[in-house]
Amino acid sequence: MGAGRVCRGGPSSASPAGAAAGRSFPPLAASSSTSSAPSETASTSVTKTVNGSHHFKIAGYSLSKGIGVGKYIASESFSVGGFEWAIYFYPDGKSPEDGAAYVSLFIALASEGTDVRALFELTLVDQSGKGQDKVHTHFGRSLEGGPYTLKYRGSMWGYKRFFKRSALETSDYLKDDCLLVNCTVGVVQSHTEGPKIYTIPVPPSNMAKHTGQLLTSGKRTDIKFKVDGEVFPAHKVVLAARSPVFRAQLFGPMKDKNMTCIKIEDMEAPVFKALLHFMYWDELPDIEELTGVNTSWVSTLMAQHLLAAADRYALERLKLLCELKLCEDVAINTVANTLALAEQHHCYQLKTVCLKFVALPENLKGMYCISESIVYWFLGEAAR
């Protein structure tokens, strides 16, 4: 009969199973063992200026005199930072108390705006070429009070006594009865940048690699060049895109529709091969790989020939790369030819480097292989 007992109350303290079944547990979310650290975010406030300039020519200055104090000549309006601006020039000054003794110059907010903060620069240009401009500027210096604030449309910044009129009329700022005024405005803009929620790595451009593989593969070529006994296949459209000279030759009005092979005169095969390499890869080739020789003299010689070829086919970037390399590799045994090339192809920086190199006494003494007439020519050029 005892086996039928029913337990109506709480679990017996003597029963471990009963204790486990009746215990009250806190919610899992409140457990200290599962709490996480607080998340962190960040943002950045960025303040910068949006800059723009306007050039204002005031022609017939003498005719503007007598217009009246407080009356101005205005430039066309120009846009900077989402606002319109204008230059105001007062030939008889802005203030009656100055009695037309000064000219006044201001920059004005010419569109609707409230509390527009900006930096300004007003320049009266020295027309003698001496560079003695009269400049008033906020740019490039510390501003104790911060940028200037224009409260509303028509607000101005500038100088009532910008220049004494009697001094202006005898200065180099006035030429052919004209004044030149340059104005720069930098509108202050702020924005807040939050954390980026994406990361997209963008690989560098590989367009030159794909174009270069066209040359390497030799597929779908439609023109051949015969140079010093060697034949080089190429693609008309690539050459035309890179060189205006080839474009005129291959697609111009005087082109030969049946032309499949062009003979190149006055150029060696390795030079033309290097030229093609640049036109497809947009970089200089490995000279040792191209010629099988690794000497500075061969490298300089190739750069000299490539410079002439670049000028011939109007490849300005290649020409500059060659000029740079030749400037770095000026030597006693190559300077004569390099200088002649610099003169012929209008490479003025390279010419200067060569002349300075030759002018050094220790280099001049070492040039025993150069004829006396060339040495004197060098000296004459260096003295100019």
UniProtKB/TrEMBL annotation:
Family matches, as SMART domains: BTB (SM00225), MATH (SM00061)
A Pfam family per the record: BTB
GO terms classed as biological process: cellular response to salt stress; protein ubiquitination
Compositional bias per record (Low complexity), positions renumbered to this chain: 8-46
The protein's annotated pathway: Protein modification; protein ubiquitination
Chain ranges of the BTB domain: 221-288
Positions of transmembrane segments: none
Record-linked InterPro entries: BACK_BPM_SPOP (IPR056423), BPM1-6 (IPR045005), BTB/POZ_dom (IPR000210), MATH/TRAF_dom (IPR002083), SKP1/BTB/POZ_sf (IPR011333), TRAF-like (IPR008974)
Disordered as annotated region, ranges: 1-46
Domain MATH: 51-185
Function as written in the Swiss-Prot or TrEMBL entry: May act as a substrate-specific adapter of an E3 ubiquitin-protein ligase complex (CUL3-RBX1-BTB) which mediates the ubiquitination and subsequent proteasomal degradation of target proteins.
Family of this protein: Belongs to the Tdpoz family.
Name this protein carries in UniProt: Uncharacterized protein
Species the sequence originates in: Eleusine coracana subsp. coracana
Lineage per the UniProt record: Eukaryota, Viridiplantae, Streptophyta, Embryophyta, Tracheophyta
